[in-house]
Structure formats: C-alpha cells, structure tokens
Design goal:
The protein has 129 residues and is an alpha+beta fold. The protein contains 6 helices and 2 strands, in the order H-E-E-H-H-H-H-H. The protein has a two-stranded antiparallel sheet.
Length: 129
C-alpha cells in the first residue's frame, strides 16, 4: 500500500491551496483555512484575469476531490470532507461532469484517475463514519 500511496503523492503539484480568511460552516466560524484548488483551474483563471472577489464553490469541490485522490491522509482532510458533505452535492454527477474520456493525453488521464480515486476515497470515509 505504501508504494501506491507514494505513487499518488507525487501528483501533489496538481493541487494548490487558497487561504479562505473567514468562513462559517456548521454554525462555527473559521479563519485562515486552506482550501485546495486544481492547479490548472487556478493558473487558467489567473492568466485570464477571471478571479474577482468570489471564487466559484465548484473549484473548491474539485480541489477537495483531487486532494482525496492524491493524499487522503492530508492533515486537514476531515474538515474539508465535512465541508464538501455539507454542500449536499451529488458527487457522482459532479465527477462525471469533470472527467474527460475523449482526451487521451497523459495529464487528462491522470486528472481523471485522481478525481475518480478522490470520489472513491471520500465515499469510503463517509461509510466508515
């Protein structure tokens, strides 16, 4: 299992983090929480100057799924998983909307693998708890 875990950890560059200064979640206020976001999404939006004051929630949902696919033992993963669960999003439909089976380049295949693995890891944790 260590080899498989280490294999996926090498894709950590697929996720960057944005610090959310204030967030209210489950009736509690949190400060300075790092939320994962796909590195491709972040760089594309910065390049095209599309980020303004608000960042689309789906970017964070995608980032949390990718992080679960890369490192499901990440130090803040329980908080992030609770956050994603609280949004009542059909994660299977969300992942289906993100995967691309028509593009066979290496990066797309790895992205598909990571986001599907993230969904599996998240669903597995939901069953355990």
């Amino acid at each position: 299992m260590d080899n498989l875990y280490n294999y996926f950890k090498k894709f950590s560059d697929k996720v960057y983090f944005l610090t959310v200064k204030n967030i209210k979640f489950n009736e509690k206020k949190y400060e300075n929480i790092d939320f994962p976001i796909s590195s491709n999404v972040l760089l594309e939006n910065i390049k095209n100057n599309k980020f303004n004051e608000n960042i689309n929630l789906t970017y964070f949902l995608e980032g949390i799924l990718l992080l679960n696919g890369i490192d499901s033992n990440f130090e803040n993963i329980e908080f992030l998983n609770d956050f994603i669960k609280s949004k009542n999003v059909n994660l299977l439909h969300f992942v289906k909307s993100k995967i691309n089976f028509n593009d066979n380049n290496y990066d797309t295949i790895i992205y598909n693998l990571l986001i599907i693995r993230g969904l599996i890891n998240l669903e597995k944790m939901m069953i355990l708890f």
